[in-house]
From TrEMBL:
The keyword Cell membrane applies. This is Protease PrsW. Belongs to the protease PrsW family. The gene is prsW. InterPro entries: Peptidase_PrsW_arch/bac, PrsW. It is a multi-pass membrane protein. It is found in: Cell membrane. The chain crosses the membrane at residues 6-23, 35-57, 134-153, 165-185, 191-208. It comes from Paenibacillus campinasensis. Signal peptide: none annotated. Its main location: membrane. Its EC number is 3.4.-.-.
Amino acid sequence: MLLFSIIASAVAPGLALLTYFYLKDRYDQEPLHMVIKVFLLGFLIVLPVMILQRGMILWLGENPIVESLLVSSGVEEFLKWFVLYHIMFNHMEFDEPYDGILYATAISLGFATAENLLYAWYSQAAFGPMMIRALLPVSGHAMFGVIMGYYMGKAKFMKSKRSRRFLAYSLLLPWFWHGLYDIILNTMTHNWLWFMVPLMVLLWYGGMGKISRANNRSPFRFINREEEIITHNK
């Protein structure tokens, strides 16, 4: 019973957020098996991330700023971006801007869920700490995924020289926000909540705007509207 409770408390936040982002796709929902596949890829990259992070700590030493910007956010966001770009960027199912957000949040939430399971298993965490992790690390990874996917979607569907710039943004901006998030946690022992709450509010506010803008640029928006008009006139 305890094992089931640990697993449920670790997995539930990631699956709940993944369901939320899946349902936010207004015009052309993605095949569920593709979303699950990308989620599992995020789950699996935890192992290479842990190996790389351990090696970098041994090489660079333990410095909270370096650990926040390079070891933690740098390695995690780069590997998520690398896998997402090579698996999904040119995939036929990536056919509207919002798909970038959905697949990026899927890989991010898969990674966050695996982290959650490891944390819950090794610390035997109670309900309270797991709720905090649902509100902060899991939610944070989701928002970093929204930023990554939004700019990757812009890079894919913008037919100009600026597409490369947006592809760079899709890596650098999540890296920046993740690094800032980790710096707050790693360098502030008492007042971190006063900085973390505004940061999460800002990320969620910006993320909701990006979701709306990505959906509004969907080519299926106008197709669906024409079909509704034709159906209405029959």
